[in-house]
């Protein structure tokens, strides 16, 4: 972690919402040990919908409600393994609901394959040069001291290209 997947996702969501590209933009954190009912309830909550029942009945109720949205973006953050979005969680997509788009972040590239993602966008660490530029932009005038440059470069090296560490 630490390359900025969540931050990037949140910025994408903000911009799409601001530009009114979707009627609703919903973000739910999935995590390594997902609670499927909690994911469904999180989505329902964002829609202002009380989600009654559990299991298949809750998934069906959520899917019914989501189909009422013409254009909706559901952002699932920190997905570690395949999720059965339609049948278990209740998120209709593809032929079932063309207006429902799903954006996921994951540390595991194979998750994109197992979830049949249309497009995978790898987010890598920054290059040494980009890391130095970012560090300089955040450190300000301190970096201009020639006596501090070797130490500053060591700090940048320790951050290993992770934008959030820089």
Automatic annotation (TrEMBL):
Entry protein name: NBS-LRR resistance protein RGC06
PANTHER family: DISEASE RESISTANCE PROTEIN RPS2-LIKE, NB-ARC DOMAIN-CONTAINING PROTEIN-RELATED
Entry-linked Pfam families: NB-ARC
Keywords: ATP-binding, Nucleotide-binding
Gene Ontology terms for molecular function: ADP binding; ATP binding
Segments forming domain NB-ARC: 1-140
């Amino acid at each position: 972690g630490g390359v900025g997947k969540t931050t990037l996702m949140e910025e994408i969501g903000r911009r799409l919402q601001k530009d009114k590209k979707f009627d609703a933009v919903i973000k739910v954190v999935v995590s390594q040990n997902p609670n499927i009912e909690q994911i469904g309830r999180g989505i329902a909550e964002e829609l202002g919908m009380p989600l009654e029942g559990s299991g298949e009945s809750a998934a069906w109720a959520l899917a019914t409600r989501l189909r009422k949205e013409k254009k909706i973006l559901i952002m699932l953050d920190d997905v570690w393994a395949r999720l059965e979005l339609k049948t278990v969680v209740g998120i209709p997509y593809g032929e079932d609901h063309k207006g429902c788009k799903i954006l996921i972040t994951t540390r595991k590239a194979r998750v994109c394959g197992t979830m049949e993602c249309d497009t995978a966008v790898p987010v890598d660490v920054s290059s040494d040069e980009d890391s130095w530029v970012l560090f300089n932009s955040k450190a300000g005038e301190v970096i201009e001291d020639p006596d501090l440059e070797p130490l500053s470069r060591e700090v940048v090296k320790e951050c290993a290209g992770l934008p959030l560490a820089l």
